[in-house]
From TrEMBL:
The chain crosses the membrane at residues 37-55, 76-93, 99-116, 123-142. Pfam families: TctB. This is Tripartite tricarboxylate transporter TctB family protein. It comes from the Bacteria. Keywords: Membrane, Transmembrane, Transmembrane helix. Residues 5-147 form the DUF1468 domain. InterPro entries: DUF1468. Signal peptide: none annotated.
Amino acid sequence: MFRLIMPVFLIVLSTSYLILTFNMDKAQVGNPDAPRYFPMIIGFFLLVMSVIYLVQEWRRRREIIEDVKELSSGRTPKLIGVTIVLILIYTFLFERIGFLYSTILFLGALLFLVNGRKHWLQNIIVAVVFSFLSWYSFAQLLNVSLP
């Protein structure tokens, strides 16, 4: 039932948007309704997509219960908990040791958590290369100051 809130909200929003487009001022020159066409197309498209979204979510409402049961069992809760702890450690280390080193440590730990020790070389290479490319892109190419 919770997943139906967003499509209903989008239907209300798109309906309000369409109503407001009809209240727009008419053009003084040329076709008087010309300023309304594009907003009406956007509002109509949003309304149609929101209704499709609502129908899809209504059909999937029983599947969602199974997805939640599957999500709360097995390895997933551990992964979520450890990821939250790693994020907290990352935020603590970010200012102290800088972007590059803290990102390498964070990504390395996260990749080891997800991929395991079997892929240790791949984990290290991805963590180092991604962190360095991110740092280089922001600090050197875009001139963004990173800690």
